[in-house]
Structure formats: structure tokens, C-alpha cells
Design goal:
- The protein is of the alpha/beta class.
- It has a single domain, classed as Alpha-Beta Barrel (TIM Barrel), CATH 3.20.20.
- 29% of the residues lie in helices and 17% in strands.
- Strands 1, 2, 3, 4, 5, 6, 7, 8, 9 and 10 form a 10-stranded mixed sheet that branches.
- The radius of gyration is 18 Å and the shape is globular.
Length: 294
């Protein structure tokens, strides 16, 4: 990238060609930490072959509870070229990946797009992001991404400010998700049970803040009709070391919190999607960022 970077909603204007990195920590070239088949996504993505995940380093959010902190803020990984990224897509496909799953790619949008334009993978491309996206940036991807999988972390701007440094998150994410749906339309499943196109909206339940979860569920139920999108309610919140400074969330969910969140979802009118068991809160779900496949 040359010139000021405005890919994410922070629009910090860092000139990566001059060595500036901005909020996300990304430089002029792609940096990635792992590329491998991943079996722990939603069933319609993992399938039988696994989701071909590419974990990118850096992030435009600053979530204190990020399970991938080692790469999102620690920037563990290796610098690669656009050509190497394209080769990685081919390698994952040959290994049997049911899709190419790009994890936290926003700050490399221009580079990723270059790779996709040169050679479209034979399986669906998944844009797996935190939901904090500029509509203008998403429009660059129209026709190149078949599946969007954004988080909808917050309906409460105060929580977004405290835990992710993004007080404008709710309105930004809502606009981004609407644009994603405009591009993909209602979700489509193959006969094999794999998602071919569409939207999966994820929400991670924060301990102690069920009202935030209820408001997110309400927005999805009010914005989309049955058959439009898939909703994934996640219970895997696992406190990180950084959570020690935020004692109110420095714990896992209680059985009562989990039960209430699932019950609210069931009564919301949302018919399509998934929810995790409470036992999902395990560090073993975090893959090793050891440069596998990079």
C-alpha cells in the first residue's frame, strides 16, 4: 500500500510505505502466523475436510479478551508476498479445504484482493472479521468474497470503548453487516451441508453483560428475516492475562448466564444458526501460531 491507510474505520492515515504502522500494527507487506485446516469453526464451514484458515497478524480492534492476542497485538508471524498468499490458497485447497477462511484480514484488504483477483480459489472465500469494517472497504471485495463471518460484539458503545477501544463499534458494525448482506444475499447451503454463500453473524457472550447480548440478538432478529442470515451464539469466553485489569470480566460464563442467553435466542424469532455448549471455554480451542503452512 502506498499513501495514507484508511482501510479500517479508524482511518489513521499511516503511510506504510514509509514504515508507519498505525493502530493495527501492520506494515507494507502481509504478515501471517498460520495456514492450516481448522475443524473448530461452525459445522457448515468445517465440514469434513476442514476450513482452510489463514491467520493474519495485527488487528484494527484492541479487544482486551482477544484469544489470538499473540498475533493480533503481539504481531507474531512472518512477512509474505501476495504471490506466496496465492500459493497458500492453492495448498489449502489441495489439502481438502472446504473453503478459504481469511481470519482478521481487514488491514491487508488491498493485498488480499490482489491475490484473489489474480486467481479465484475453487472453493468459497470466507471473510472472518471482528465486524469493525468500513463500508467503502467492503465494497472493494464485492464479487470476490462469497461468505462473510463478522462478529457483532457490542450493542453498547460504552462496552465497545472499554474493552475494544472503539466507542463507535455498534453503528459501524451494523452498517458493515448490512453491506455484507447486500453483497451475498440470503445464505445458500449445498446438499453436503456446507455453506456456499451468505452471512454468519457471530456474537461472543461477555460475562456479566447479558443485556448487551440480548440487544445484539434483538437487532439481528429485527433486521433480518428467517432464511436471510445465520447467527452463531458463542460461549467460549476465556479470560486472557489482560483481563486481570478488568476484574468484572476476568472469569468464564456461569451456567445461569449461558442458560439465559440461549433461552433468549430461542425466543427471539431467529431460526437459523448455532450456539455453543458452555464447555467451549477452553484454551485448547486456540491454535498454535507456529508458522504452520506459512
Amino acid at each position: 500500500m502506498t499513501g495514507p491507510c484508511n482501510l479500517c474505520p479508524r482511518q489513521c492515515g499511516a503511510d506504510r510505505a514509509l514504515g508507519e504502522t498505525g493502530f493495527c500494527g501492520a506494515g507494507a507487506e502481509i504478515r501471517a502466523a498460520r495456514a492450516a485446516l481448522h475443524m473448530w469453526e461452525e459445522p457448515c464451514l468445517s465440514g469434513g475436510g476442514g476450513s482452510g484458515t489463514v491467520f493474519f497478524s495485527g488487528c484494527s480492534l484492541g479487544c482486551v479478551y482477544c484469544q489470538n492476542y499473540e498475533i493480533s497485538r503481539g504481531l507474531a508471524g512472518k512477512t509474505i508476498t501476495v504471490g506466496r498468499l496465492r500459493d497458500i490458497f492453492r495448498e489449502l485447497t489441495r489439502q481438502g479445504a472446504d473453503n478459504i477462511n481469511l481470519v482478521t484480514p481487514t488491514h491487508y484488504t488491498d493485498r488480499v484482493l490482489e491475490a484473489l483477483q489474480a486467481e479465484r480459489p475453487p472453493v468459497p472465500v470466507v471473510w472472518n472479521c471482528g465486524g469493525y469494517e468500513r463500508v467503502e472497504t467492503l465494497r472493494m471485495l464485492d464479487g470476490h468474497v462469497q461468505i462473510y463471518m463478522p462478529d457483532m460484539k457490542y450493542a453498547d458503545g460504552a462496552l465497545a470503548a472499554r474493552y475494544s477501544g472503539a466507542p463507535d463499534y455498534p453503528e459501524v458494525a451494523r452498517s458493515a453487516i448490512r453491506e455484507m448482506f447486500r453483497q451475498t444475499g440470503s445464505y445458500a447451503m449445498g446438499e453436503d451441508g456446507l455453506l456456499r454463500s451468505g452471512l454468519i453473524i457471530r456474537h461472543l457472550i461477555l460475562p456479566g453483560f447479558l443485556e448487551n447480548t440480548f440487544r445484539v440478538i434483538d437487532w439481528v432478529a429485527e433486521t433480518f428475516s428467517p432464511g436471510d442470515v445465520l447467527f452463531s451464539l458463542m460461549s467460549q469466553f476465556t479470560p486472557t492475562k489482560a483481563c486481570a485489569a478488568y476484574p468484572e470480566i476476568n472469569r468464564t460464563l456461569t451456567p445461569e448466564e449461558h442458560e439465559r442467553a440461549v433461552a433468549y435466542l430461542m425466543e427471539s424469532g431467529i431460526e437459523d444458526g448455532f450456539f455453543q455448549d458452555l464447555g467451549s471455554a477452553k484454551e485448547s480451542f486456540i491454535p498454535p501460531f507456529d508458522l504452520t503452512g506459512i
